[in-house]
Specification:
The protein is mostly helical. It has 27 helices and no strands. The chain is globular and about 75 Å long. It has helices at residues 2-11, 17-43, 50-62, 74-106, 110-139, 145-148, 155-172, 174-178, 180-198, 200-208, 212-236, 241-264, 279-299, 301-309, 312-325, 327-351, 356-386, 392-399, 402-405, 408-437, 441-469, 471-503, 507-510, 514-525, 529-550, 560-587, 589-603. The longest helix has 33 residues, at 74-106. The protein is 83% helix and 0% strand. It folds into three domains: 111-299, no CATH class; 325-526, no CATH class; 528-587.
Length: 604
Amino acid sequence: MASTVQRLFLSIGIQDASMFSLLILPIVLGITVAVYFQMGSSAKDPPTGNEDKDKASATKDDNPQKEQHDTPTDDSSIRKAASGTVWSIAVKLLSFLCTQVSFRLLGDNIAALGQAAIQLELLLTTVLFVSREGFRLSLTKTTAENDTWNVAWLSIPVSTAAALLAFVWHMQTETAQLDQDYQWGGILYCIGAWMEGLAEPAALHCLRQLQVATRVSAEGMASLFKTFATVMALQLAPQWPICCFGVAQVVYGTVYAAFMYRKTWFQLVLFDVSQGLDGTTCYMTLLFTVQGLFKHFLTEADRIVLSTLAGSYDQGIYAMASAYGGLAARFLLQPMEEVARLLWSRVSSSSTQNNNDNNNNYRRLLQQSYVVLVKLVLYIGLVFCCLATNYTSVLLNVLAGRKWGSIPEAATVLSAFCIYTAFMAWNGMTEAFVFGVASSGGDIGRLGVMHSVVGVIFAVIAPMFVSRFDTVGVVAANCVCMALRSLYSMVFAAKYFAQEQHNNGGGEENTTTTGKMFQTLVRQMSPHPVVLVCFAVSALGSHQSLQWLESHTEVPTGSKAWFLLAARHVILGGMCFVGICAVAFPLEKEFRQSIRQLLRAKQD
């Protein structure tokens, strides 16, 4: 029997026991998840309606006074929000830790990381986009289940066809024909995309019913399993790194689909043959898919450029830098942007529901909060630009290991990502204002047009930058595009404040033009010139310290002596940061007072 199984796997190209273990891993997990799904389904019978009435009646009889306190309380909402936040943070932290382990297990196999994280991820996202984008846009326009819901089930054959086409294209590539690891890794990515596409009817149901928590929980659970599967697979078969990432993607798709169907199975409306397919919805689905392809190519422009112009080694360097460089955006900047968007949305809506005097107060609060929050993220960006750029090699040695830390290109690209983080902070906060105060679809539409124009600019300049600066060129092109988007958002804000001032009785003599308002905003949100000089001096000093650290070539990287030298380098950076804060504290007194006023306004 064993020899028969061995001959079977040899016939399809599996000649390594570790490769066999990799393929068994998702199969075992799939069986486990299927049993879990079946147990959950049998334990949760579909509601009959009478049971709910009996339960409600019994509850009412047993607790006659509970009717007075039956409405949801603020405490319960707070607990749900807090638990969701804690869950999200825990998933991100565990994913980050597993990513560190994965980088260490990969060692110096950087090309494999590039092929998986750039080329195969591009293949995956393209399959998923074709499989679901059009369905999500067309089927969330209406909630009429009986008329259009049958179209949702078309997402399964569409995702199957897209995965098959991706499989055929992948097998025809030259790399897949020469590299068995890349070949099997691509096959696993196609299977993972197909598994994730199978869950699209359940995802569409959650979108139509606004069940955001279910979808977020499914994605979080699947991400958690994916990170663990990556580490396990790399432990089992380190000589098949691309396949390891492919196995993790299959695990993600399996867990995601099982979780989604387990939560929504008894709520789903199955395909009704008598209803047929709604022609209008099918046409709109196709139309949205075709229209969205341009947006998809713009979103994946960096991967497309790297896949076309850069080698696997450079792609791996970029993937590593992106994983570390996105930490600040995920953990720090994104929550700030969400809070700011909600704040501006509430203040702008309140200003339209009050008298003229209150409108002026809300307008001043809106402008003050805009200037203060943009200035805050600019300070954060300056810390990344001037200080963090000189500590990337130390960070890589500590987190990713000596092999990654000893690669000069990795530290250089990660330093470029630190500068890119500053541009992301600027763009994220200024665009959050646009989304927060936009009062018409035209405002969002013009922003979308601007994004498309910027995407075209990226497609033009990125190849030129890559040919001259290698992987750093992609980051530089992204910085240029982020700057253009930020400038557009600032012009929108200047126009908005100038118009609000005119509408609220500013008078012709007191009304400022958009150009003057733009100059006012730039002046108010810019850091103090003396503080900027301190940042420049700190950047120069920390850079000299980095060169001093790198000059000790006789000290082995990662040794005790090296860590002592690195500690001196880090202490100098800390002293520079403290010095900047000490200078900024008395000079930015108005800025500190504005932050305190915003915090008090938030509490009120």
